[in-house]
Write a structure and sequence with these properties.
Order of helices and strands: HHHHHEE
Helix content: 40-55%
Largest sheet: 2 strands, antiparallel
Distance between the termini: 51 Å
Number of helices: 5
Number of strands: 2
Strand order of the largest sheet: 1-2
Strand content: 5-15%
């Protein structure tokens, strides 16, 4: 049975730093994390429009599985992975299932003299 996650290939490094976890980047391993990878795939699945009736059932199942996986991961995303939560919240908004993700994301918002922003740590003023 599938979990709904898109698992990265453990033999190949990530091509985009945003796909790696903070810990992977710190340890210079740069392997993809399944949460942002699944979020990106879910977004792509929602962008897929012109499919046959036969493929539509598979597409709907893949969307639902990926969304269910991400919903189950929202509370486990560590605070230093702000981007992972943001991309997950956006992906889940496409499935109409993002309320908890956005609540958690907004709880991480920073508001200072430079304005409102999302970051794992305070950004120094210029």
């Amino acid at each position: 049975k599938t979990t709904g996650a898109w698992d990265p290939d453990p033999d190949h490094p990530a091509y985009d730093r945003k796909m790696s976890s903070f810990e992977e980047i710190k340890n210079e391993r740069m392997y993809s994390d399944r949460i942002p990878l699944t979020a990106y795939v879910l977004i792509a699945l929602y962008e897929t429009k012109d499919v046959s009736e036969e493929a539509l059932g598979c597409l709907d199942n893949a969307r639902a599985s990926a969304a269910n996986f991400l919903v189950g991961q929202v509370n486990d995303i560590p605070q230093e992975e702000v981007f992972h939560l943001a991309i997950t919240a956006y992906a889940l908004s496409l499935s109409q299932n993002s309320e908890n993700a956005f609540k958690r994301l907004w709880s991480w918002a920073r508001n200072d003299s430079d304005g409102l922003y999302f970051a794992d740590q305070k950004i120094p003023e210029n």
